[in-house]
Amino acid sequence: MMFAKQITKEEINNLPLRKYEGKIVLITKTDDLEAVFEELEQYPVVGFDTEARPSFRKGVRYDTSLIQLSVPNKTYIIRLNYTGISLVFADFFANSAIKKVGISIKDDLKDLRKLCAKHQVAFDPENVLDLNDTAKKLDVHHAGVRKLTAIFLGFRVSKAQQTSNWENLQLTEPQLRYAATDAWVCLEIHRRLESLGYL
After folding, report:
1. Which domain, by its residues, includes 99?
2. Residue 41 lies in a domain
3. Residue 149 placed within a domain
4. Does residue 182 belong to any structural domain of this protein?
5. Which of 7, 10, 14, 43 falls between 20 and 30 A from 122, CA-CA?
6. Least confident of 33-42, 52-61, 102-111, 144-153
7. Which domain CATH number covers 33?
């Protein structure tokens, strides 16, 4: 076993802070989706995460604002509140040849299904891996992006932008880096676990 099974908040805070430094491609037009998903089909593994406008009222959830899809050397950030949902989006998630890797994705998938239904698009994801489940099988006593990143990658990520408004007309550079980081670490954790023979 090459990693700890648990980690304290203090231990996480002592780790170096890192963020995604690679290329970010921001997509806001429906017409661009086909080319994006055509390119993503070339990769066997894609890290993903979603963001939604935060709600500070109990029982209120907003639609998914964006989805982040990370492959080596590039992360796409698709602003779903601008592009809407199309068949190519649903086809990507239904493609069993591509492994979609995320962390704590149960609600993400539920919200995406709801958004697809609004656009009258069937959403039947295949080959989706939640790294929380993988960690549990490895007897790691934690879940979530921050803790799993610390345990498996040895650095910490900032969650400062988590409750920012993802429906702003323009997203800030810190928002884009935060969003891209969350998808990128999923890809990196998968790569690390695969190299150690755990996947």
Report:
1. 9-195
2. yes
3. yes
4. yes
5. 43
6. 52-61
7. 3.30.420.10
Task: Say whether pTM exceeds 0.85.
Answer: yes
How many domains is the chain built from?
1
Cβ distance 161 to 66 under 8 Å?
no
pLDDT digits (tens, 9 = 90+) for 170-189: 999 999 999 999 999 999 99
Statement: residue 48 has pLDDT above 70:
yes
Which CA distances in Å does 149 have to 66, 126, 154, 156, 180? 22, 24, 7, 6, 14
Task: Kindly state whether residue 3 falls inside one of the protein's structural domains.
Answer: no
Long-range contacts of 25-32 (CB under 8 A, 24+ apart): 25/74, 25/75, 25/76, 25/77, 26/77, 26/79, 26/171, 26/176, 27/76, 27/77, 27/78, 27/79, 27/83, 28/79, 28/82, 28/83, 29/82, 29/83, 30/83, 30/84, 30/86, 32/83
56 pLDDT above the threshold of 90: no
Place of tokens 């994705």: 105
* Cα gap 116→100, rounded to integer Å: 17
pLDDT digits (tens, 9 = 90+) for 112-159: 999 999 999 999 999 999 999 999 999 998 889 999 999 999 999 998
